[in-house]
Amino acid sequence: MLLIHCPYCEEDRSELEFRWAGEAHIARPENIAAISDEEFAEFFFLRNNEKGLTYERWRHIHGCGRFFNAARDTISDRFLMTYKAGLPKQPVPVAEEFAAIAEEKSVETWEQTEGDAR
Amino acid sequence: MSASSNSGAFRIKGAGRHTPARTARFTFDGKSYTALEGDTVASALLAHGVHLLGRSFKYHRPRGILTAGPEEPNALLDVSRDAARRQPNVRATVQEVFDGAKISSQNRWPSLRYDIGAINDALSPFFAAGFYYKTFMWPKEAWHKIYEPIIRRSAGLGVAPTEDDPDHYASRYVHCDVLVAGAGVAGLTAALSAAATGKTIILVDEQPEVGGALHYDASTMIGGQNGYDWAQAAAAKLKAMPNVTVLTRTTVFGYYNHGFLGLVERVTDHISRPGKDVPRERLWQVRSKQVILATGSIERHMVFANNDRPGIMLASAARSFLNHHGVAVGNRVGVYTAHDSAYEAAFDLKRAGVSIAAIVDNRDRPGEAVLAEARKLGIDVLAGHAVVDTSGRLRINSMTVARNGNFDRRKIKVDALIVSAGWTPSVHLFSQSRGKLKFEAASQRFLPDVYAQNSISVGACNGTDDLAELIDEAILAGGGRVALSGENRFEWTGGMIGAAEGAGPEDAVKAFVDFQHDVTAKDICLAVREGMHSIEHIKRFTTNGMASDQGKLSNMHGLAIASEMLGRPIPQVGLTTFRAPYTPVTYGTLINHSRGDLFDPARKTPMHALEEAEGAEFEDVGNWKRAWYFPRRGEDMHSAVNRECKTVRDVAGVFDASTLGKIEVVGPDAAQFLNLLYTNAWDTLKPGKCRYGIMTREDGFIYDDGVVGRLAEDRFHVTTTTGGAPRVLNHMEDYLQTEFPHLKVWLTSTTEQWAVIAVQGPKAREIIEPFVEGQDLSNEAFPHMSVAECTVMGVPARLFRVSFTGEVGYEINVPADYGAAVWKAVWVRAESMGACLYGTETMHVLRAEKGYIIVGQDTDGTVTPDDAGYGWAVSKKKADFVGIRGLKRPDLAREGRKQLVGLLTKDPKEVLEEGGQIVADPNQPKPMTMLGHVTSSYWSENLGRSIAIALVAGGRAKVGETLYVPMADKTIAVEVTGMVFVDKEGGRING
Amino acid sequence: MAELGSHIATRSLPLSGVHGGSSMVRLEPAAPASRISLRVRAEDVPALSSALGVDLPVKPKTSAYANGRTALWLGPDEWLVIDEGESGLMTAAANSGVLHSATDVSHRNTAILVSGPGAAAAINAGCSQDLSLDVFPVGACSRTLFGKVEIVLLRTAEDAFRVEVWRSFSDYAFGLLSEGARDAAL
């Protein structure tokens, strides 16, 4: 059960109060009616689904109700930071980033533990 | 040996910590026994000399008690209070005896002593590792008929109870600064230290009393007193502190993300007659800032030929039975060890008057201190020897001993054999927390290395063997100051992992590695020969470590054997992942309150009780209970619905529409916001008017629909589908907060603020007119699609003139607490005028007669407004709305998409099945080309025939054509029609 | 028309007649109250505060009480305002003269009063928040989850809470609180 810092409530709360809301920093094009099929596909259908540091949206749906952004390491599930909606993509503090990288190397993955017997 | 009277012949006077006068009666396989309070089932049976407790899973070999703790793989029993309170696979070494307990052995037939299944032992060559994967491959047909039934009958150990569990289970969320897992010397010391800092502490231990290893280790002194006594005093001191919670009989079963831990507290399993308010178990969901892991270590057995006979057990277990329970495990006990700790067990037994046949030590050089003590006590030590076999059918009666590398064997008579291969640190919780382990080659054990969370391991689970060092480590971890010293009698040395002498890959013996799943050293060797080179594959091939004990005893041995076979060091062979739960957890605990009425909220409208009184049958719509139909005496559903449908169109009907989602949209930019969220245009809607709106997602598919009323320039009353209310609000909030935050508008859910009484039918106006004040209901003043704020029966109301039936219709919204009173008054008048109550089934039929869609029934997330025949609701003038670009995608704009149309069966009495597939030519070869499917289908009493709505490829161009719905037993011919079946001109709605 | 129209509708409360609790926890339905869901931008908070006669708190998880009205911070621009007396909340908000959204939710919510030495433990049977006095002091409030339903929790005294819940979830909330109360008494 994750513990998530809500930047509006200024407090850590249980994951139970939150709902994940997909990749962050994908702005709806202002001229959406005019964009090409490729641009629409890029905006609406395609997601990076990166392993490691990802930027994603969460909603504190059973709390203050606000959407906000989070930088999370999908391997360790560590939240490196959370920040309010509307702010541009925030750089992850350097120390946190190093910790995340170190963790990434140390945490067992399926490939390491179960995938080497081919 | 002096045996105490009735609590068992093997009870040693003066030994153990139980009070002889406090007894409890229980039965085992129908025979009655007396135990002492505090006994486990294991200690109580051993006190009576009962060692045979069960049969193994695969070979049905007689098995006894191997351990004195939760790691027990053998002694799994069925424990019951009554017919419903029965639990299989209970560990005899954990379950405390309570007065009246009925305990039975498992996995045997017809009896424990004579078990037919034991034939498997003789046939064991056929049941070697991996036999499942090979034996049952051929012939294919035999699988269902022969193999699967056999496997199902013989699989599993216990039998699940058939009655509902009458116990209840509690749950608590709790937060603390420090959680200490384990209350042995390390855990207690760490807790004392942490408690001194004033932090909030939860100290948890799985046993009934604190003390951990001090239960068996009677020679250790802490703080100048007997270790066990010190532990009890320390716990009492901690319990008295306001910042400390001590939980015993409680297992930390999972260590999850971000300091979250799952605990199960066994509240009543040890009590004879628990009070009715007392939960059987309590789930604690703990969020702790820091975790101190003091989980200790688990002794390993020796892997040698026939090491599984009843009477063979871990040395520390024998010591526990003696020093804590006052029970001798035999009269003449052999010892087989690779570690000094077993010597201390022999010393304790010897001093208690038990004869020690010999200590067989497979090391050439046992620890000098224990060797000297053994000599002093006159115990025969055979160093550099091995136990190469044992005998005794239902209990060990001899061990066969040979000098290592020598073929000369001799038999030594014993009635119990205690073993130790050394100690495995319990790193389960550390590993669950995603900490990374390192292998320490010198001591051949995995120890905590890199921490992933704010936790720290202390004591035996951290590989800290020296008592003084352990205490210092625990004090430091706690962060406070405690003055404490401890003293051991002996420093322990030794330990081994893997197969012992005579149980190697070339030896054709049964030397068990995993007792519960009957995995032998040979099975591990076979797995490697068969090409399994990863421990994960070896585990699955042999099932080593996959039983309910999760390999607490077997994993290291299995790993060592595999490592030797592969010629690769242990870290390269790998270690299987430790996963929660540490020990099995009941479903009752995991679901705790979520059963019965509290399984899920049952949402009821303000009129629910009145509808119930009128005989309503209810259906579940999401969490809501909705009145489905109102059968009168003698009516079935079909006839009730037919009557309701006729009555609404002939007279009128009253319907509870309270569950419809409602969202209040308020602010100067409200219309602009709705313009963006719906396909329709809203700025043209005047206050006092309503409009049917369609909401699409960005991809252009219909997401929801509903009537929106404009109450004022800056205030809209939006309705959604019943099931869609929460997600529609979330969808709206998402766009408002993140895409259109500049708009001055706010959203509030008002679903439950209003009770909604729909009155529909030719007499609707006449029915409601007397109740309404402040609004002229005439067609001119209040035509179809109007909304007004007025007064109904003296309370402020929102009155809508809307229709989901095609008749004149009103929806009276009153504040929810007034819903019942208004509903009742309206119904009394309506009934007197010949109207009826109707439910959701009639609502469905009436709307289908008019071709009104239901989102989620007639649409499925791939239907555009145009597909549904609602192209008119998509504004052509707006520059933007959610879905505008999606609707332009080539596939959404192409010809031939599936479109909603009406279907009329050629035989008017034939009612199609919803979901039925539609084809053009029923005689085409299979697989047929499907054109679409039936989405709604009903009997229309008003038309005296069936009607249906369907999604059909190019449907609107096919109107008038005949298509077919092939069913299993027949093919139904249908004609494609428009979607409106009743009042095609639409005049009635304005009447 | 007159004789029927003169029927004045009577109010039926969602939790009328229920009772529960234990030796450590008292559970009772709260009296009917007036409530609005209030949405205001930061710059207009003072105007609404003075119009309502209670200072809208701007610190997360806090509430304010004055003149029989309690204002609970639910989000950065969202408050639940509860008036234990007769309403006037909508009119008072409208009189602020500044941009805002007020929506009457008097009947959407109902409330359960939980009090006694075991009150926090009873609520923690289904609520994941830390209810220790340091973290959730008197006056603290939060929207959160209680078991499977959403609630707004307000601490009114060291051993007393008000649980605001949507009316159709109130049976469930009361039932789960009863279970929590029973366990808190052990």
TrEMBL record, chain A:
Any GO BP annotation? tetrahydrofolate metabolic process
Can you say what this protein is called? Sarcosine oxidase subunit delta family protein
* One Pfam family cited in the UniProt record for this chain: SoxD
InterPro entries linked to this entry: SoxD, SoxD_sf
Q: Which organism is it from?
A: Aliirhizobium smilacinae
Q: What GO terms are given for molecular function?
A: sarcosine oxidase activity
UniProtKB/TrEMBL annotation, chain B:
**Record domain GCVT N-terminal: where:** 607-878
The record's listing under Pfam families reads: Fer2_4, GCV_T, GCV_T_C, Pyr_redox_2, SO_alpha_A3
Gene Ontology terms, MF aspect: sarcosine oxidase activity
Q: Which keywords fit this entry according to its UniProt record?
A: Oxidoreductase
Q: Where is the SoxA A3 domain?
A: 510-590
GO BP annotations of the record are: tetrahydrofolate metabolic process
Q: Which Gene3D superfamilies match?
A: 2Fe-2S iron-sulphur cluster binding domain, sarcosine oxidase, alpha subunit, N-terminal domain, BFD-like [2Fe-2S]-binding domain, FAD/NAD(P)-binding domain, Probable tRNA modification gtpase trme, domain 1
Aminomethyltransferase C-terminal domain span: 898-983
Residues in FAD/NAD(P)-binding domain copies: 177-448
**InterPro entries noted in UniProt:** 2Fe-2S-bd_N, BFD-like_2Fe2S-bd_dom_sf, FAD/NAD-bd_sf, FAD/NAD-binding_dom, GcvT/YgfZ/DmdA, GcvT/YgfZ_C, GcvT_C, GCVT_N
Which NCBIfam families does the record associate with it?
soxA (TIGR01372)
Q: What family is this protein classified in?
A: Belongs to the GcvT family.
What is this protein identified as?
Sarcosine oxidase subunit alpha
UniProtKB/TrEMBL annotation, chain C:
Q: Output the Gene Ontology terms for molecular function.
A: sarcosine oxidase activity
Taxonomic placement: Bacteria, Pseudomonadati, Pseudomonadota, Alphaproteobacteria, Hyphomicrobiales
Quote the gene name from the UniProt entry: soxG
What protein is this chain from? Answer: Sarcosine oxidase subunit gamma family protein
Q: Which GO terms describe its biological process?
A: sarcosine catabolic process
